[in-house]
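--- STAGE predict ---
source: upstream dedup step, 1 unique chain passed
mode: sequence only
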Amino acid sequence: MGSCLSSETPAASAGAAAWWRKGRRGTREGAAGGLPSGGKKPPGRGGEMTEDELARVSGRMCGNGASAVACLHTQQGRKGTNQDAMVVWESFNSSDSIFCGVFDGHGPYGHFVAKKVRDSLPVKLRTQWQTSANGPCSSPHQNGSISGSINSEETASIVDDEWGDGDNTEKLPEMFLPLKRSYLKAFKLMDKELKLHPTVDCFCSGSTAVTLVKQGLDLVIGNLGDSRAIMGTRDASNNLTALQLTVDLKPNLPSTFSSHSDHFINPRRPS
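--- STAGE serialize ---
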């Protein structure tokens, strides 16, 4: 299961917006004529969007298929319920930004958790990113707030102290730090929302989340768990090679708590 994102976006054409593979039930995901992808419509309750609203978002695809810039595929295995979920969302926060995510559920309710994270996490991330761009003052709904949500000052302090970039800050693109803070907020809010779910015990069920945002020539990755982001590139002989962009985050890997403590998500050391 996975998704593939092209590094080059072809020039827009009249039919490009409608080039989406039809779903198994004849519906077209991300079809033209739906809600604008760039986020002009404010999200609903707590930074959420309903399934109907998500289905009408132009440029969003979450089933097997392909567009001009990406392709997705998942296949039923032999273990029972398929607990995989994936999404590509073009024009995510601007006309040149794309969100891509893969979520691998585990546990009795893993399929539900993966689907919930697929539908909710991108919306929370986009809401946080837009709020960050508009300044520190925002409403609770813009913050995607739920009971016990973290505030902006707390998150900014965590990012600056624990994930500070030191002398490299000047070399980073302007969108990096706001997006990094937005990623951290969105992951924490998503985690709290799942913990408070009234019918799903997320202590024994969960999901990985390997996500990326591509804006122009910049690529930012937010990762939790052991799903991997891999980039296809060319070597000196023009042969296609695979470059792993993420490091597996597992409780039994010492590197998770030492050399890679600068990741967005810093798992607690098991007692």
